[in-house]
């Protein structure tokens, strides 16, 4: 966008054809067509860098990033080299973290520093923060003192905090300025920053006291003072706030940008909504991966990292499966007398596990979106138990009658029905209570809930079914 | 925000204390404190509507919406009545769908029409679209012809399409206008709309040919023509595009607003990013609920609706569990000879199921974010199989040695290890292949994947373990 501003005629109307051609490189879901990707890869392979560049040059940086992600990892460096300066700072900032790390490893520190200089602080930090200590230092050493200071101070904030997300380029004015003065000031200092959506009004101590949308400035007389135009009710983001919390504020209050303040309340930066969209997507998607223990769960993650993240979880799952297995062991005598029980018992455990997952998914989502507080916890638990009783009753009736008929054994039908009802109600209770308890304890409910819930539904499923069968004298 | 513009002095500095008081009603996660909610409920119960209003009036509409959501459903109508006009159109548009439906049922059509009139088209449509046909008609009848026409034409678009999301109030100018002329035009027509972030440049046929950020207008000389300032490369949203696709475009191209065009390419509306944040959150969260079959999975959903959504899934799960059960039935003779097999078999099925969930979660997320295309499908499958082989090898070694030692039976250890490796690799393959196949067939991979994957991992777990044990002559 910066380019479009400084040189608005960059895209000539004559290039419309090229743009249309690029448009035809996308399928209906806005993904690059395989044929297009292959054409670029073939051109690079044939050593025809110019042809590759001709194909790629009409693309948006976000699409060039997609192209590199779709390129097999062992050919990415070649493709990036052939595309030359088409792979610019904006492309890097759009790239998947793993793919970017790959590419950056192949660059010299001066090149990375060059890229970082072209970006807003937040995007530059995103690129540099994942680098190894030594590489990071080399890049910082190659930067201008001013840029370096900005990046270093951002890196001083915790990962995933507002301080890392914010950009320092913003427009702040004193409240006595009039609309006309602000417009004149902006016109004289157009090089400050060009991507901003709101102006912050600050007091002499540089503390934000109001926010003003650009549209208000454009629709009001020049004589109005900022103090009379600005909205005083603002959402200030503490610089150390976690990015997930920042995203929830943006969503709740429908923010486009927000002022970031330090511990003393001074304005130190601004976060804009375009950076928040990524975070909302990531955070909401993370829960699904965490619930299954899939770690970062990115298809670009190195195999060995995926292995390490997942196997840890599978080994934990192995331990909890042993608990359920031990419970079965208690009833070996019963199973020996009636081996059909072994055939039926996984049904009770499995359907219970599914019922637990349902309640758990609902609870984890509600917690992630701040929908559950102490005010409605009790109500939510009661609600889930009511749903569980209805579900349990229905499933129990179906399986009970089915087993009774197929095995010609009404008692066996009654036993499996009672066990199923017990397990689904237990699952409902565990599905809501486990995430709530973890959340109260300050743990992430998405990470550990399913270990506990699965252990509970497996164990209860086997215990209730085999225990009731034993009691019934089978 | 509208209020702040037409009456910028509405919030007096003296009210700062009240604002600070409201601030203290929030916990560190920006949720309303239980004590505050109780205080409001108590005031309403005691018939002191004024005290309730004093407590609530400093709150942001989004917080008033939260308050109503935290109120038990049987008391919501009383609380809303006591709060009177504090529960305005903005509060309604922020409310959870289920809670809003509850409240709106208690309102007369004229009141709903009044609320709808105060809102942008998109928010008004969001309120009206969920109403029953007859109520909807009554509300529309009570509206001004102009508002009614706007809402009716929005309702004519499919649910969850761009046409429902867009607002009609936008600023579009011809390309020959200069920056100065645009500013003068806006100042003379300040009543058009006050919440916009970009200006669309249109040709004489009202087709968008460029977009211009307000910040560019404010930082450029008055004499510059819009044609020279605008960015020609724009992301146009077809009016019938699905909202999930719209959200992906906003995210990919970091958009703040986008022009919506009809089939003939004419500008018919604008979508702003604040409405997209909700959708990104919803869509990303939906997958987690769908994977577990929890339906809409909202804690405010009526119990009977949750029951219907979930029991359907549990009954399906019952059928797939029967498949696994039938496989165990084949090997009843083997189990009778060695009942320890019944104790151990759920471990193989359970850990395999977990491995399948991991791969499935990763694949579903990658599909939802358009990360997988025909260009990298094969690579992704191979990647997942490699992870599965590593995971399977590790878990198989651990369980194999453990069982061998505990049971003092090396053959049993070898059997369970081989079965575990087989099942985890099968799980990896199923976890990536099932969602990909469903996606290719045009089905939502999040909805049905886990039914198939669980069936495969359960069946393969029992089959591999009991089958190998039988082959080994146990």
From TrEMBL, chains A, B:
Gene that specifies this protein: mgtE
Top-rank taxon: Bacteria
Keyword Magnesium: yes
Pfam name, any one: MgtE_N
NCBIfam families per record: mgtE
A GO-annotated cellular component: plasma membrane
Protein's recorded name: Magnesium transporter MgtE
Originating species: Sphingobium algorifonticola
Family designation: Belongs to the SLC41A transporter family.
Role noted for this protein: Acts as a magnesium transporter.
Quaternary context: Homodimer.
Record field: transmembrane: 313-331, 387-408, 414-438, 450-472
Membrane topology category: Multi-pass membrane protein
